[in-house]
């Protein structure tokens, strides 16, 4: 392999959402910036996000939309660069967008609009971006009179080893989710190399799987979507779920997966906002001759009701409502409002939208994203132990955390 040498003020590892934003912020301040991206293309997750329309932020963003060992850590960055700042840039570029349910903002045309905007801003500010550039090693360099470089990098670019030095090194390499879109653990390795701690990591915003009879039920209902209230560890979301061949997906399942740990049960309320026991007792008075499945079919799909009948009252399938005891109806009503399920696991990093956990924020300045005990080393975006809900919050964290770093590097 041949070698060459280059010095920059700032080197950013990873040309995803946070890396590109950091590059433009730092370059606009006049810093000499290089972004190194291991993949053949930059911003792959941006392009895939939001079903190709990129849910780039949300009208309402607060610390309560994020999960972290330190729930206060994200506040300074979120206040410094808000959703309105990013929306302002989107509007300056005249990118058409729409507000969907739960105040989520999506591109009307394509996620490409967001990526092109970031690339334009990088180009205008003079940030250099190299793809096919994978980090081989990083070590500290001794600053001297001739150079203020603190870090020395060896990078493999198409079988050539390039050496770079920089004053500030920003780790924006994302996390473990979807390896085919660039997910990697390199950011954690760098953190550990420099003595930073990691929190436990799990796949987040990810579908649930089942291995027992529930798996068979899910297979039969695959494709069915319905609005439910789904909860884990006392956190609830009222949204759609989608039955799949492996288990349950859909927004409510993805949201709840962020709060679920292996072995926990989840609680499914199939009739949110309805006291199902009371409703069934009323139906016993008013629809005396109807079958229970007929009554339920007014609120739930016939396929789902058939499966519930098999599980909960198949011996009484042909009995009219009037012949059910109150106790039986109350018990069925309670299960409709509070169905306890035990997932065997999640689909894991292969399909997860994010990684929950990451570089422990205890070692990071919340004002600048710099490692407290390692001058010039910064961590931004998903590599940190800050995980957003579904709804544009993960991109907002990328934009906000990069901005704090972009002003400091
Ligand atoms: C399918 C999907 C859809 C999503 N949709 C949304 C959505 O609509 N809204 C939302 O808010 N969030 C969404 N997310 C989450 C969001 O994409 C991430 O939270 C966000 O991209 C994180 O930004 P990041 O810059 O930290 O990491 P990334 O965007 O993952 O960027 C990291 C970059 O680092 C590169 N890299 C990795 N290792 C190296 C290395 N060794 N050397 C050099 N480069 C390296 C990677 O190739 C990648 O380009 C979605 C995620 C997925 C997977």
Can you walk through the features of this model?
It is a single chain. This protein is of the alpha+beta class and 409 residues long. The chain folds into 2 domains: 3-202 and 356-408, FAD/NAD(P)-binding domain (3-Layer(bba) Sandwich), CATH 3.50.50.60; 208-346, Elongation Factor Tu (Ef-tu), domain 3 (Beta Barrel), CATH 2.40.30.10. Helices cover 32% and strands 25% of the residues. It has helices at 17-28, 44-52, 75-80, 83-92, 112-125, 186-193, 213-221, 251-257, 276-286, 292-296, 302-312, 326-337, 393-408; strands at 3-13, 33-36, 55-58, 66-67, 97-100, 104-107, 128-130, 133-140, 151-157, 160-171, 202-204, 208-209, 225-232, 235-243, 247-249, 266-269, 339-341, 345-346, 354-356, 377-379, 387-388. Strands 1, 2, 7, 8, 9, 10 and 20 form a 7-stranded mixed sheet that branches. The chain binds flavin-adenine dinucleotide (FAD). The site of flavin-adenine dinucleotide (FAD) has 39 residues, from helix 1, helix 2, strand 8 and helix 13. The site of flavin-adenine dinucleotide has 39 residues, from helix 1, helix 2, strand 8 and helix 13.
Keywords:
409 residues; 7-stranded antiparallel sheet; single chain; Elongation Factor Tu (Ef-tu), domain 3; binds flavin-adenine dinucleotide; 7-stranded mixed sheet; alpha+beta
Q: How many β-strand runs?
A: 21
CATH fold type of the largest domain: FAD/NAD(P)-binding domain
**Low-pLDDT ranges:** none
Number of helices: 13
Given the helix and strand composition, which structural class is it?
Answer: alpha+beta
Bound ligands, named by name, code or SMILES? flavin-adenine dinucleotide
- Assembly level: single chain
